[in-house]
Amino acid sequence: MDKSQGTSASTTELARPVNIPPRPALLIAVQHEMNKEEPHLKKISRLINRDVAISGNLLAIANSAMFNLGRHIETVEDAITLIGLNNCNALMTSLMMRRTLSHGKMMMPRFWDVSEKRSWGMMYVAKLTRVSTPELAYNFGLFSDIGIPLMMASFPNYAETLNAANKMEASGFIELENQCHRINHAVVGGMLAEHWSVDPIVVLAIKKHHTHSILNDLSFSEKLRQLIAVFYLVDKAIQEHRHATSVEWQEGGHQAREILNLSDEEVEQICVDLKARFSSPLMS
Fold this sequence. Notes:
Elements: H1 9-14, H2 25-34, H3 41-49, H4 52-62, H5 76-83, H6 85-101, H7 109-129, H8 134-143, H9 147-154, H10 158-166, H11 173-181, H12 185-195, H13 200-208, H14 222-241, H15 247-259, H16 264-278
Helix pairs in contact: 2-3, 2-6, 3-5, 4-6, 5-6, 6-8, 7-8, 7-14, 8-13, 9-12, 10-11, 12-13, 13-14, 14-15, 14-16
């Protein structure tokens, strides 16, 4: 059993300067229907179709190389049927998050580009290694660093903190944030995920994904450690794609490789495959 990670009163107080946006009403309605014992696909599709932009984006992704279904999907109901409710839920969350959190100071094009690659890459690796369900891995990739744009919008000098962190050659981002702002993006991201009713294992992974020692801590579940290991592997590929070095892989790569039961050669081949896919339009 994982250690309890409920948000404490002191953490809530520290997060007071951060605006945690509520889960959008459309997402609440769609997820409410999806979570029923017998979800009504026509009702779900009608709800999604109320938002022309979201329904259009969902169809575009369902027809993209991400799912490679081999046929053109023309209706939201067909998309739900063919990609599945869980994948549809994950994609709706992604689309609503992007709409809610990518304006003003939170626009951050590079952040959202990396977020897209990470969530897609984690889905790919989860399918390949079978250590997690693809939609769970996708959601973790999506939410893992979502606290960064929230911190950017909430603290006037956060850009300086982020710039300093990007120049670090070793871990220390969390400590730097705590020192400068008394809270960090992992905690903030976990709080947003809780507010948006994300799976508890993903919430905990968000809070702990920069804690490299967790990979060896058997008091945490194997499922959690596998998710974080996938995160480190995908981060290695993303950083190499950007001609940079993954601090996460440097410090936790050996343990991550063992958790995923991969050889060095298999790790390198997965990274080669991911980088090739990152170089092609994922949504075309």
